[in-house]
Each structure stands twice: as structure tokens, then as C-alpha cells.
Specification:
With 310 residues, this protein is mainly beta. It has a single domain (2-306), classed as membrane protein fhac: a member of the omp85/tpsb transporter family (Porin, Beta Barrel). 2% of the residues lie in helices and 61% in strands. The chain is built from 1 helix and 17 strands. Strands 1-2-3-4-5-6-7-8-9-10-13-14-15-16-17 form a 15-stranded antiparallel beta sheet, with no helix packed on it. The longest helix is centred in the N-terminal third of the chain and has 6 residues, at 67-72. It is globular and about 60 Å long. It starts with a strand and ends with a strand. 25% of the residues are buried.
Length: 310
């Protein structure tokens, strides 16, 4: 992966820095992927424009829908081809609030990794599915450094509406809300809190529902083990900056998936705990390369990324 951070205009000292980036993925299980994207801030922070394109072949295990299926551990190996584009444009209104439309265009195909395998919860295999949606994005951010926040809050609410009238194979809706709080504890120490809610409606395929373990919600779980229509996750993370561009973080959290939020129970909570080292790739913007080791209910994960998990 790689990226470039820059100011869209040298005369504009109000807008946050913009980013362009590219990433490639090659794994030992046959997954391959490529992605590129931009985050542009300009006109004295009046407009934000986000674009992203990804093309990938993903090999992963599907356990079925619901907590019981994830706990049972019976899995089916799937191959998924994905070609997707995301575009967002938001405008500042008032009180640090930005709002605007978003567009998602994609095509995907599912196939079993081994012939003869299937599950009744899967859509038809070896068939191209088109994903087309129009949506809305609302954001509010009072942090001074979005790459490494040390104070303030940030929130984001998105709603995506997939419909046959737009050319989508499936008709369904997705709603996602994220809220983060940051506190400075002392010199070079930050305590960060994150809450996440996901909900889906309509005839959503399993890959359009709430997938536990994606978007760093939560680390410690392989994506696609726990999937359902609704989900919540919350986590807290302690971060410390050390000499020589080094740093460290420790985190803990819990969450749950279910067909409805009213079905959530204490017995089905999914806890996670972990931590890892950090290395500052950019001292000017405090952009960290992070490595996280996390333990969940069924096992552990190791992940790496640019910037903080939230």
C-alpha cells in the first residue's frame, strides 16, 4: 500500500490535507486484490469528495447467517469476484456538519471453492450480480488531526438504497452509524472510544448484511463468520507515542449480530481484546503503520493497516 498526503491548494490553510492512495493484496489462500482511492478537501473546507475503486478475487469461509451458525463452526469455502466503485460528495452546512449524496456501483460473482458444495442461505452461484445504490452521507468531525486524533469527536451516518429500478439485482437498504470520542490522558497518551451500529432491510444477500470483523469492528474475528441483519460493536483503545517514531496500543471491545436488535442477549455477546506496535510513517501528519494482534471468542487475528483503527 502507498499514499500521498497534500494540500489541495497552497492558499487554502483551512481545509484538512487531502490523500490519494493505492493498495494491492496477494495472499497464500489465492485471494488477489487491487484498490485505489482519493479523499479531497478543498474550497476552505466547504467540500469533501471521496472516491474509491476496487477489483478483487476473495477466497474466504462462509458459516451461514446468524450467531448460532457462527458458533457452530460449519463452514463453506467461497470464491467471490468483486468489481466496485464508490463516490461521495459532501458540503459543509453548519456546526461542523457535512452532508451529501453517495453512489455505489458494483458487480460480483460467487462460486464454491470445491465442486458440489452449497448452503441453502446462498444466492445462486456462478451468476453475475449487479449492485447499484444511491445513498446519503452525514458527517461531523471536531478533531484537529484526522490521522491521529487526540481530542474531540467524530461521527458518520450513511444510508444506501439498492433497487431494481437502479439496475441492482437485489432490493435492500443498509444503514451504518459510527461515533468516536478521543481524550488526551497526558503527554503522548490518548484514550479513544468507538461505537458502531449497522442495520439492513429488504431482501439483502448475505454479503450486503452486517458482517462482524470488517471495518475493524471488531478485531479478533475473521470476517464472514458472524453475519446478520443487525449489528452493534463498541470498543475502547489506549494509545501511546514512544521515542524513535514508535508507539503502541491496547484495546478491548464487544459486539453482537442478530436478526433484530430486540433479539440481542447477553449470552450472544462477542468479546475481543488485543494490542500491537505502531510506527510513524509521517511525522508531519502523525500517520502510523499499525500491526494488531487480537483474540476473539473463537480464535485470534493479525492485521495491519495505515492509520488508526478508528
Amino acid at each position: 500500500m502507498g499514499g500521498y498526503i497534500f494540500n489541495f491548494s497552497r492558499k487554502d490553510i483551512i481545509s484538512p490535507p487531502s490523500v490519494v492512495g493505492v493498495a494491492g493484496l496477494i495472499t497464500d489462500n489465492g485471494s488477489r486484490g487491487f484498490a485505489t482511492g482519493t479523499e479531497l478537501y478543498f474550497n476552505k473546507d466547504l467540500y469533501h469528495v471521496t472516491t474509491g475503486y476496487a477489483r478483487a478475487l476473495l477466497n474466504y469461509d462462509f458459516y451461514g447467517t446468524g450467531t448460532a451458525a457462527g458458533n457452530a463452526g460449519r463452514k463453506l469455502g467461497l470464491k467471490q469476484n468483486l468489481d466496485a466503485f464508490l463516490g461521495e460528495v459532501t458540503r459543509h452546512l453548519f456546526w461542523h456538519i457535512f452532508i451529501g449524496p453517495r453512489l455505489l456501483l458494483g458487480t460480483t460473482t460467487l462460486a464454491p471453492q470445491h465442486l458440489g458444495e452449497t448452503l441453502p442461505q446462498l444466492p445462486p452461484l456462478n451468476v453475475d450480480f449487479d449492485l447499484r445504490s444511491l445513498g446519503l452521507n452525514v458527517e461531523r468531525d471536531t478533531t484537529t488531526n484526522r490521522f491521529y486524533p487526540v481530542g474531540g469527536t467524530s461521527g458518520r451516518l450513511t444510508a444506501d438504497f439498492f433497487d431494481h429500478g437502479l439496475g441492482s439485482t437485489f432490493t435492500f437498504q443498509t444503514y451504518r452509524a459510527t461515533f468516536n470520542v478521543y481524550h488526551t490522558l497526558g503527554k503522548d497518551q490518548v484514550l479513544a472510544y468507538n461505537a458502531y451500529i449497522c442495520a439492513t432491510g429488504g431482501a439483502a444477500p448475505f454479503f450486503g448484511k452486517c458482517i462482524f470483523g470488517t471495518n475493524n469492528e471488531l478485531r479478533g474475528y475473521a470476517a464472514a463468520r458472524y453475519i446478520d441483519r443487525d449489528m452493534f460493536a463498541t470498543q475502547i483503545e489506549y494509545r501511546v507515542s514512544l521515542p524513535w517514531r514508535l508507539g503502541a496500543a491496547a484495546f478491548a471491545g464487544l459486539g453482537q449480530v442478530g436478526p433484530r436488535f430486540t433479539d440481542f442477549t447477553f449470552d450472544n455477546l462477542l468479546p475481543a481484546i488485543g494490542g500491537g506496535p505502531r510506527f510513524q510513517l509521517s511525522t508531519k501528519y502523525h500517520v502510523n503503520l499499525r500491526a494488531d494482534f487480537a483474540q476473539g471468542k473463537n480464535g485470534h487475528t493479525f492485521s495491519m493497516g495505515l492509520g488508526e483503527a478508528f
